[in-house]
Amino acid sequence: MMDRFHYRQDREAYSAARVKALEALLIKKGVITDKTVDTVLDFFETKMGPFNGAKIVARAWVDPAFKDRLVADTPKAIAELQLPEGMAGAEGEHMRAVANAPHVHNLIICTLCSCYPWPVLGLPPYWYKDPTFRSRAAREPRAVLMEFGLAVPDAVQIKVWDSSAQIRWFVVPERPAGTDGLSEAELEALVTPEAMMGVAVARAA
């Protein structure tokens, strides 16, 4: 990650210690039980996460008509797939998909806070919530993408989509070249959360 989005190396341990202390306090006060956190974690490990987004993108890659429906009415198209219940629940309200094309690259940000389509992308990474990323990506997206290692040619237009409580955006990246013989399941493995946020592109294995 670029230096301006650098975080202390012990951030995971630091955050874990704070969470553990808060969890202990909430249990002591009877707000939650000792199983509440495990239940929430299991939910995001098994039901809501980037594996759902990968299924949606892979279907769009193999079915152009589905891709059109996904962009036109995202919730309705997602409802066609056999995905876990809750896709339109918490943090999934009003999801909208935008599709990359040879001359257009889409980037998702949230300038206000960190609105994010959890059901298809999982929990947002640290840098997505960073004020520096949020402000610079809106002003100079091409430069920020270069810092992520993604060089977008000048001939390609970059569109920045600002998520909010009303609309949570995600990207349908372009299908990588040389993947014509892959199955839909194999294509899913090529889809990353970063590609669905627009800070990367999908690549063949």
Structure description:
The protein is an alpha/beta fold. The protein folds into 2 domains: 12-46, no CATH class; 49-197, Nitrile hydratase alpha /Thiocyanate hydrolase gamma (Nitrile Hydratase, Chain A, Alpha-Beta Complex). It has helices at residues 11-28, 36-46, 50-62, 64-72, 74-78, 118-121, 131-139, 141-147, 184-188, 193-197; strands at residues 95-99, 104-109, 157-162, 168-172. The strands form 2 sheets. A two-stranded parallel ribbon has the order 1-4. The two termini are 22 Å apart. The mean pLDDT is 86. Keywords: Lyase, Metal-binding, Plasmid.
Which CATH first-tier class of the largest domain would you pick?
Alpha Beta
State the major sheet: 2 strands, parallel
Rg to the nearest angstrom? 18 Å
Mean pLDDT: 86
Strand order of the largest sheet: 1-4
Encode the helix/strand succession as letters. HHHHHEEHHHEEHH
Distance between the termini: 22 Å
Quick one: CATH superfamily of the largest domain? Nitrile hydratase alpha /Thiocyanate hydrolase gamma
Number of helices: 10
Named at the architecture level, the CATH assignment of the largest domain is Alpha-Beta Complex
Number of strands: 4
Strand content: 5-15%
Shape: globular
> How much helicity do the residues have?
40-55%
Overall tally of structural domains: 2
User: How is the CATH topology of the largest domain named?
Assistant: Nitrile Hydratase, Chain A
